[in-house]
Specification:
By secondary structure, the protein is mainly alpha-helical. It has helices at 24-66, 86-129; strands spanning 8-9, 20-21, 73-77, 80-84. The protein has a single domain (21-131), classed as Helix Hairpins (Orthogonal Bundle), CATH 1.10.287.370. α1 (24-66) runs antiparallel to α2 (86-129).
């Protein structure tokens, strides 16, 4: 995350006409943008992981359908396996899928909130600095 001094931003090759005074408020917006941008990337990665986990649980549910009704199923809990009936396994998988779906919804909501705040900060910073600041990836 780049930090700028509270003096003047002077860019290489820029004329004296393009000097921009960086106020404390501007510095705080720049820092907040950097933190939120990193948080957005972290949330996107977490969301990708949760989606993958949800797909694996769906696949496991589909495999359980093919299992015999009287055959015990080994269900993993942490690093241990224990045997459950087919019905119990379906209930456990459904509960786990619901939990992952709730976590995905929470991450999606957080991502939307972060993106909205980033858009607002971009508008403020580009309005203040114009082409003298680059907030793109």
């Amino acid at each position: 995350m780049a930090k700028f001094s509270l003096a003047k931003l002077k860019f290489l090759g820029a004329d004296d006409d393009n000097d921009v005074e960086v106020r404390l408020e501007d510095q705080q917006h720049i820092n907040q943008f950097g933190r939120l941008n990193q948080r957005m990337h972290d949330v996107e990665e977490d969301l990708k992981t949760k989606r993958s986990e949800h797909e694996l649980l769906d696949d496991a549910s589909n495999e359980i359908i093919l299992a015999d009704d009287d055959e015990p199923i080994r269900y993993t809990f942490g690093e241990c396996y224990y045997e459950v009936t087919k019905d119990q396994c379906e209930e456990l998988l459904d509960a786990q899928k619901d939990k992952v779906a709730e976590e995905m919804t929470a991450l999606e909501n957080e991502l939307k909130s972060v993106q909205a705040t980033l858009a607002d900060l971009k508008a403020k910073l580009y309005g203040r600095f114009g082409k003298n600041i680059n907030l793109e990836e």
